[in-house]
Automatic annotation (TrEMBL), chain A:
Residue stretches making up the Sodium symporter small subunit domain: 9-85
Organism encoding this protein: Neolewinella agarilytica
Transmembrane segments: 20-40, 52-73
InterPro entries: Na_symporter_ssu
Keyword Transmembrane: yes
NCBIfam families per the UniProt record, alphabetical: Na_symport_sm (TIGR03647)
Coiled coil feature spans: none
Protein's name according to its UniProt entry: Putative solute:sodium symporter small subunit
Keywords for the protein's UniProt record, in alphabetical order: Membrane, Transmembrane, Transmembrane helix
TrEMBL record, chain B:
Topology in membrane: Multi-pass membrane protein
Gene Ontology molecular functions: transmembrane transporter activity
Family stated for the protein in its record: Belongs to the sodium:solute symporter (SSF) (TC 2.A.21) family.
First-listed, main subcellular location of the protein, grouped into a coarse class: membrane
Listed PROSITE patterns: NA_SOLUT_SYMP_3
Keyword check for Transmembrane helix: yes
Classification via Gene3D superfamilies: Sodium/glucose cotransporter (1.20.1730.10)
Segments crossing the lipid bilayer: 6-24, 77-95, 116-134, 146-167, 179-200, 248-270, 282-303, 401-425, 446-467, 473-498, 505-522, 542-563
Xref: InterPro entries: Na/Glc_symporter_sf, Na/solute_symporter, Na/solute_symporter_VC_2705, Sodium:Solute_Symporter
UniProt source species: Neolewinella agarilytica
Any single Gene Ontology cellular-component annotation: plasma membrane
Name of the protein in its database record: Cation/acetate symporter
């Protein structure tokens, strides 16, 4: 049933794009947001010996990047299953 | 055993391992040569990608660059890690599903055009050669520094080793040697980092030690102390930096997008079995890279604080032993400009150019005499940035084998990156040029031979540039990222996410993007258009050549979309390919035809 197959693929792609938008927004917020654009104001807060903006720029953003990829892997594996794309 | 013996022992041992792996995993087919047979596990691929990615510069120089740049150094930390998020989310799974051998393969098929393929081959070669020349030089430097051989001899030893496993094993050999090289380099980086963190703050985890209080019981936070020391000496506070915000933004973005567009990184994701493995191995790669990239800024803080504390405003006699050792190796120099007998350190370079030692002559105070001209500031101390990593074992009073380990680690980092780049160069020539354009009827055996021969040729060219570095190589290596950002990234993204993108748009975008980047680079980095290098006041929007990749990428996107809008949409079968790569199942194996 090509039409069904088609709409299945469309729905899958739409959900994928939604995940991408959310994850990339976080990607942007921790690096360009917290680490660069709002670094100044965030530096008024502290995380132990770190000023917060500086911490995001040299530590925090990298930790979040790693987490983002693994969250993406999990979400996509679930999504593949939901749409029946998990079988080779 | 002394340091020298340990170094020969550890370097010899690791090299035998690499060569053993190369013999065990030699490639028998083009598929094994280009993509390691396509059956690499996600973790192994993650380790190989991490080793491929982290060059001698990441290993030896990055912590030093950050130590002297403070907050400004964040551009490298975020830029060279954040790109993996883009890779994992926007490129790797789809390119894996597409299932070809190289990046120009994707461009050529997706844009149904050999012109597009040739433009992509040109960009891939340009990016890879600018990058690899710097790596071979790095191999030579590491050899000469640790094994006390001539720098050119070092380049030649490096060439022979890389030749051996890249030509013999292709991607398969490279992948498994890179797995071993990752283990060596991360161990070599973390051991001194952990001990120096313990020494400075009492915390064994460098990433946490960086934000802890000093171990001297004063209760002062390490970063506060370094901020104080920096401002006292006349620098900006360490955690503030001095670059403009827009430039920091642009450089970070150019490095991120460039990372995601580097062909030798992208091609690693063709070697795994399934689409889900491609996603997962991008996660592993970043996790493994992040271990070094979060420790490096900590090492920077430890080493810088230690240096200022133990060196500045002391007499030459009071200087620590490591300083005198590295002075003997030519990485440190001091002239007493104000004749007070104390070492002063401050903003500006102490001398113009590298220190020119006056033979073995010593000044009355004991330091090596230098003949450089004083540029007219108060700074008396020349420090090579690489010392921040090199001297760590000595600063932390670690035994000789740790110093030897750092040497083996630096060599692992340099060799693994060089090998990965050489493979991209050879497959661009044998697969994208010979097989796809010049002689499509070439046999499997013939293509494999062509791949090996082009790898040999690429090693020789890279070695030549390593021995006779054209003055501009060092200046442009950092710009390889800008070139990748300006060319590949938009073409690949649009090829996946915009079904209507056609060949006219993609070709125009790549050509205009990379030309804009090259012109800006030549004008503002190399200064070939003017009698003198234009000052930073003339930069567009205050963006440095390093950050211009961001602008060139935007230009590429705009040109692509505008041209695409006024030309015919791609044929139906190409649109079907795009539909197909968006779905993960049925990826099959990477194939050449």
């Amino acid at each position: 049933m090509p039409i069904n197959k088609d709409s299945n693929a469309k729905a899958y792609w739409k959900e994928n794009l939604r995940y991408l938008t959310i994850l990339l927004t976080i990607w942007f917020a921790v690096s360009y947001g917290a680490g660069i654009l709002f670094k100044g104001p965030l530096d008024n807060f502290r995380l132990g010996g770190f000023k917060l903006g500086f911490w995001f720029a040299q530590q925090g953003s990298i930790y979040v990047f790693v987490i983002l990829i693994f969250v993406y892997v999990r979400l996509m594996n679930k999504l593949d299953k939901k749409y029946g794309y998990d079988v080779e | 055993m002394d340091v020298q013996t340990w170094t020969y022992l550890l370097v010899g041992l690791t090299f035998s391992i690499y060569i053993g792996i190369a013999i065990w995993s030699r490639a028998g087919s083009t598929k094994e040569f280009y993509v390691a047979g396509g059956g690499v596990s996600p973790l192994a691929n993650g380790m190989a990608t991490a080793a491929d990615w982290m060059s001698a510069a990441s290993f030896l120089s990055m912590a030093g660059i950050i130590a002297f740049a403070g907050y400004d150094g964040s551009v490298y930390l975020m830029g060279w890690t954040g790109g993996y998020v883009l890779l994992a989310l926007l490129l790797a799974p789809y390119l894996r599903k597409f299932g070809k051998f190289t990046v120009p393969d994707f461009i050529g098929d997706r844009y149904y055009s050999d012109t597009a393929r040739l433009v992509a081959v040109f960009c891939a070669l340009l990016v890879s050669f600018t990058y690899v020349a710097g790596q071979m030089r790095g191999v030579g430097l590491v050899f000469s520094r640790f094994l006390e051989v001539d720098i050119n001899t070092g380049v030649i030893i490096g060439m022979i080793i890389v030749l051996f496993y890249a030509v013999l094993g292709g991607m398969k050999g490279i992948t498994y040697t890179q797995v071993a090289q990752y283990c060596v380099l991360i161990f070599a980086f973390m051991v001194p980092a952990i001990f120096i963190s313990l020494q400075m703050t009492g915390n064994p985890i460098p990433q946490l030690g960086m934000g802890s209080t000093l171990a001297d019981g004063s209760g002062t936070f390490l970063l506060d102390k370094l901020d104080g020391l920096s401002t006292q000496l006349g620098f900006a506070a360490y955690t503030d930096g001095s670059k403009s915000m827009i430039d920091v933004f642009a450089i970070t973005l150019a490095l991120m997008v460039g990372t995601a567009g580097l062909p030798h990184v992208i091609v690693r994701f063709f070697t795994v079995k399934r689409v889900r493995d491609a996603r997962k191995s991008a996660g592993y790669a970043l996790l493994l890279i992040a271990i070094l990239y979060t420790a490096a800024p900590a090492v920077a803080v430890f080493a810088k604080t230690n240096m200022i504390d133990s060196v500045v405003d002391k007499t030459y006699q009071e200087q620590p032993d490591w300083l005198k050792n590295y002075e003997n190796l030519g990485l440190i120099a001091w002239t007493d400009k104000n004749d007070d007998g104390l070492v002063q350190y401050g903003p500006g370079s102490a001398f113009i150019g590298k220190p020119a030692y006056d033979g073995d002559k010593r000044t009355a105070l004991g330091a090596r005499a230098v003949t450089n001209i004083n540029p007219g500031n108060q700074n008396e101390l020349y420090v090579d940035r690489d010392i921040m990593v090199l001297a760590n074992p000595e600063i932390a009073n670690l035994p000789g084998w740790v110093i030897a380990l750092v040497a083996a680690g630096a060599l692992a980092a340099a060799l693994s990156t060089a090998a990965g780049l050489l493979l991209v160069i050879s497959s661009s020539v044998s697969h994208d040029l010979i097989k796809k354009v010049v002689n499509p009827n070439i046999s499997e055996k013939g293509e494999l031979m062509a791949a090996r021969l082009s790898a040999v040729a690429a090693v020789c060219v890279a070695g030549y540039f390593g021995i006779n570095p054209p003055g501009f190589v060092a200046a442009v290596v950092a710009l390889a990222f800008g070139l990748a950002a300006a060319s590949f990234f938009p073409a690949i993204i649009l090829g996946i996410f915009y079904k209507r993108m056609n060949k006219e748009g993609a070709i125009a975008g790549m050509v205009v993007g990379i030309t804009a980047m090259l012109l800006y680079m030549i004008k503002y980095k190399l200064g070939w258009f003017d009698a003198t290098l234009p000052s930073s006041d003339e930069w567009w929007f205050g963006i440095s050549p390093e950050g211009f990749g961001t602008i060139a990428m935007i230009i590429n996107f705009v040109v692509s979309l505008v041209v695409c809008h006024f030309t015919t949409p791609p044929p139906q079968e190409v649109q079907d390919i795009v539909e197909n790569i968006r779905i993960p199942s049925g990826a099959g194996e990477a194939r050449g035809h």
